[in-house]
Structures are given as structure tokens and as C-alpha cells.
Amino acid sequence: MAHTIRDRKPLLTRVRRIQGQLRSLETTLDEGGDCAAVLQQIAAVRGAVAGLMNQVLEGHIREHLGNPEASPAEREEDVAEVLTALRSYLR
Fold it and tell me: pTM of the predicted model, to two decimals?
């Protein structure tokens, strides 16, 4: 997907932020942190991953489904890809 290459820097920034949040969660668990702190960190990780998914999905929809030059067959294929990704994500 060309949009992930074009938007690589902000996507990698998000991924690195998520990695930092996961390391913090791991440290909190390893040190026997409070349940409320663990839940808060899990919620933050979940929100960060959702933000990453939204950003990539929006780019995909805009570039592929919004492409006026795409044939009906290409659009159908792109719709199937988006639906597969959403089903997997929403499980």
C-alpha cells in the first residue's frame, strides 16, 4: 500500500509510542503495580492501537476506495480487503 510508505514517519511514531506504552505496562506488572494502574495502561494501549488502525484504514479507504480511476473489480477487491481487516480487528 503506497499510503503506508508515504505516511511511514507518523505511523512509525505511533508504533514506537505503543511500544513504550507496552514496556511501561510490562514494568508495572513486573513490579506488582496496582490494578487500577494496570487497567489504565491497558486502556491507553488499546486506544493507541485503535488510533493506529484508524489512521491506516483511513489512508487505505481514501487511496483505494476513493480512487476515481479504479475499476469496479478493483473497488470490489479493496472493499473485501477492508472488510477482512475490520472483521479481524473487531473480534
Answer: 0.80
